[in-house]
């Protein structure tokens, strides 16, 4: 099998890292270079990457996100932010309107660009024989994190990435049945039993950090409004 495909199919998230392992500058640069070469809508590259090496900053991140201590204990933490400031500067320079609040499309473009760059970083990390975990909880305290990293208007955090040398081996997590995810030519309905079967698969997988079934976890998560701060934050950032 192609080694790149094998690597992609073997992806695992790691949350425990060797605190004595230091990522070399060359390794970090390889990850950043690979990340920056990700696909981007119209080559707009509507994102930025903040390399967080300072221990004090990382301690503050863990204070805001106590369930993710790896943000401090990993070799490096990368914060991927959607960046529409750069094109706002272009609009000012060209003396034209910047009508990004007329539609949600600019938010989707910037979020997608940042996410693709993050995924390229994950692949590069694994190619170097290291491990990582994506951290979406940076959006839970989006105003504080924005202040912590001096984010200007038109910029917002999308996700973080803890990178390091894993100390605990992880198994490859089972994914949803293909029939529930992959459709040919048109969206196709499927038997809900497939989702219940996945509950059983995940129960047998028995990841220690999971305390609920897959369906219960998301039924509970989406039954109530969450992170209402995000809307007001995006308005303050001139994005809504």
UniProtKB/TrEMBL annotation:
InterPro entries: Flavin_OxRdtase_Frp, Nitroreductase, Nitroreductase-like
UniProt keyword Chaperone, yes or no: no
Cited Pfam families: Nitroreductase
Domain Nitroreductase: 9-165
Origin superkingdom: Bacteria
Family as reported in the entry's similarity comment: Belongs to the flavin oxidoreductase frp family.
Protein name: NADPH-dependent oxidoreductase
